């Protein structure tokens, strides 16, 4: 039992080197946002929008299906010490699957699933139903400059128990916990005047602070995200961005830039935050006027985890 809990704690502490509650910690989702250091709240214009700011869904021009996989901290070997879980070696994995609809007069919709998994020991799952809409649809004076969005989320965390841990009082109520919560987002994107080219985003995640504790209360704290990005008329191919986050009393700052070249076929990006440096690349290919696909890759190097060869994320998105 102690070995299982020790491995769980070690895995989560790797993802939260600063003092913070670690349940459903933001470990960096989406290959494209991660390549910018996570500074995506004011951009949020693709299938990764539910992860950062659901208000950005209104910018999506295609239906999109996207899938991502990541092996975190490659070359770093963790041991569970419990052969009953299928072996001693433990990996930290991320998966993300998302569908988002193109904008219509009824708004934009999305359905996504995010998973964090410690091999055979611990996992977290988040299922989100997302919706975004321009406020101009309701208040014409705002035109299409301001949009709002919400996520309705189902959270589930679970552990794998062995014969000894199954009788531990900590898990007397079962080996899993689930809860519902919600996110809300706001995006301002002025299309004229002195502020043309700027994008400002604000999002609040886990608004109800759901309790996912096994025995004692373990609430997922509210996470606030404030982001800014800028795309000038003179250099539309370069978009710098900055995010400030606040969770459980800990403030984070991330910054990055993205550049699309050769007719938006090749995307390059780089960024950093308080935990890691990042870089990424994308390739986009259209098939006629009704279909296309994009391949995103990002690589991050952690500052505080020794002997790790970095984390790799690969994401494929199909447009139709």
General description of the model:
The chain has 320 residues and is mostly beta strands. It has helices at residues 2-15, 31-35, 49-52, and strands spanning 64-72, 78-79, 89-90, 92-100, 108-118, 122-134, 146-159, 176-188, 198-205, 223-230, 238-247, 250-261, 266-272, 276-287, 291-302, 311-319. The strands form two sheets. Strands 1-4-5-6-7-8-9-10-11-12-13-14-15-16 form a 14-stranded antiparallel beta barrel. A two-stranded antiparallel ribbon has the order 2-3. The N and C termini lie far apart (48 Å).
Report strand %. Answer: over 45%
Structural class: mainly beta
Radius of gyration: 20 Å
The protein's oligomeric status is: single chain
Mean pLDDT: 88
Number of strands: 16
| Main sheet makeup | 14 strands, antiparallel, barrel
The percent range for helix content is under 10%
Low-confidence parts: 1-10, 16-21
Layout of helices and strands:
Blueprint: H1 2-15, H2 31-35, H3 49-52, E1 64-72, E2 78-79, E3 89-90, E4 92-100, E5 108-118, E6 122-134, E7 146-159, E8 176-188, E9 198-205, E10 223-230, E11 238-247, E12 250-261, E13 266-272, E14 276-287, E15 291-302, E16 311-319
Antiparallel strand pairs: 1-4, 1-16, 2-3, 4-5, 5-6, 6-7, 7-8, 8-9, 9-10, 10-11, 11-12, 12-13, 13-14, 14-15, 15-16
Keywords:
16 strands; mainly beta; 320 residues; 14-stranded antiparallel barrel
Short précis:
By secondary structure, the protein is mainly beta. Helices cover 7% and strands 47% of the residues.
